[in-house]
């Protein structure tokens, strides 16, 4: 089994970016405006952090925009390597994003709720570079689009991984105590985490080290 790549999300400063990279992160998540969640930072700061990150480390802009033109406008302020769309696109207009931003990778988040999530992931996988499975709930009055600290049904995640032909990131409540089981169950291309490696909202080098050690 190949060791998954790790994306550390909710990065909130240049120092946190450096800590995550030094511990082995292959990608960093930079959270733009969201209806809820602990990891949001301003677009100017996202731009500043992204500028300091060397290749081949990827920088993901997390956007809650759902119209292609708004996603493009958000991206243009921050210039990351990748856009992570955390809500469903209103129309499946990925082609407009491809045409306008041909050099940018697209990752679509699917919040794993039920068998409908499997169908959604399979359909969307035709248009993007990777799928990221998370534990939010876009159906709430105040949408929950990530950073929940909760796991979801990994049997569905495994079903999705087997059904799609593009890389899959697993997110949602991953920590040092469940990461081995997550890897063995889902066999994802990548892992994504936020809450479990933080103390009082700050990235905690000790927790980060323990997470990477627990991956094996
Ligand atoms: O952290 C946030 O504020 C957030 C809000 C809305 C969408 C995503 C958000 N966080 C980024 C992530 O993608 C998390 O890494 C992912 O949801 C896993 O978080 P966790 O369960 O806390 O490990």
Automatic annotation (TrEMBL):
The family database entries (InterPro entries) matched by this protein are listed as: Aldolase_TIM (IPR013785), PRAI_dom (IPR001240), RibuloseP-bd_barrel (IPR011060), TrpF_fam (IPR044643)
Q: What are the record keywords, sorted?
A: Amino-acid biosynthesis, Aromatic amino acid biosynthesis, Isomerase, Tryptophan biosynthesis
Keyword Isomerase in record: yes
Q: Which residues form the N-(5'phosphoribosyl) anthranilate isomerase (PRAI) domain?
A: 6-212
What Enzyme Commission number does this protein have? 5.3.1.24
| GO terms classed as biological process | L-tryptophan biosynthetic process
Q: Which family does it belong to?
A: Belongs to the TrpF family.
**What is the protein named?**
N-(5'-phosphoribosyl)anthranilate isomerase
């Amino acid at each position: 089994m190949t060791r998954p790549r790790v994306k550390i999300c909710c990065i909130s400063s240049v120092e946190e970016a450096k800590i995550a990279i030094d511990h082995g992160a292959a990608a960093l998540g930079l959270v733009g405006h969201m209806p809820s969640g602990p990891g949001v930072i301003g677009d100017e700061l996202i731009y500043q952090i992204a500028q300091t990150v060397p290749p081949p480390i990827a920088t993901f802009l997390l956007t809650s925009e759902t119209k292609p033109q708004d996603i493009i406008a958000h991206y243009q302020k921050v210039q990351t390597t990748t856009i992570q769309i955390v809500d469903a696109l209103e129309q499946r207009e990925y082609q407009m994003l491809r045409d306008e931003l041909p050099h940018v990778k697209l990752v679509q988040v699917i919040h794993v709720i039920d068998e409908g999530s499997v169908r959604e992931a399979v359909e969307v996988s035709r248009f993007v570079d990777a799928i990221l499975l998370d534990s939010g709930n876009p159906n709430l009055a105040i949408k929950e689009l990530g950073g929940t600290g909760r796991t979801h049904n990994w049997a569905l995640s495994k079903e999705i991984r087997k059904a799609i032909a593009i890389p899959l990131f697993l997110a949602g409540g991953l920590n040092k105590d469940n990461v081995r089981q997550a890897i063995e169950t889902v066999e994802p291309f990548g892992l994504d985490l936020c809450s479990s490696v933080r103390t009082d909202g700050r990235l905690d080098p000790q927790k980060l080290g323990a997470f990477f050690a627990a991956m094996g």
